[in-house]
Amino acid sequence: MRTTTATVTIRIPTPLRGFTNNQEIVEVQGATVGEALQQLVAQFPRLKPHLFNEEGRLRSFVNIYLGDEDVRYLQREATPLQPGAELSIVPSVAGGHF
After folding, report:
1. Along the 98 residues of the chain, how does pLDDT read in single tens digits?
2. Could you tell me which of 7, 10, 55, 70 has the fewest CB atoms within 10 Å of its CB?
């Protein structure tokens, strides 16, 4: 089976734009969500600890959407991408105790 590397856009949320030179949208190459995210952190290494833990897994409070679909309900980081796909990084918002 041949995988095709696609050019995809990744929407960067406001709190993380300081790590992407204030870019709201970054274009990367990748056949899967995981490959696209690896390309993103290769371009912007300071972003990596905000997306991935020490084991290299996506942090639990970081949600990745392909269009309107949460990739956790698809194939997670193995979710295939088509050219022109749009990924969005959506940090979870959690409440806490005062």
Report:
1. 445 677 999 999 999 999 999 999 999 999 999 999 999 999 999 999 999 999 988 888 889 999 999 999 998 999 999 999 999 999 876 554 44
2. 55
Integer Cα distance of 20 and 54 in angstroms = 21
CATH of residue 67's domain is 3.10.20.30
26, amino acid identity:
V
Q: Tell me which residue range forms the domain holding 25.
A: 6-84
44 in helix, strand or coil?
A: coil
Burial category of 28 from C-beta neighbours within 10 Å (exposed 0-12, middle 13-18, buried 19 and up): buried
Rounded to whole angstroms, the Cα distance separating 70 from 55 reads 22
Q: Is the pTM of this model over 0.70?
A: yes
Rounded to 5°, the CA angle 42-58-4 comes to 60
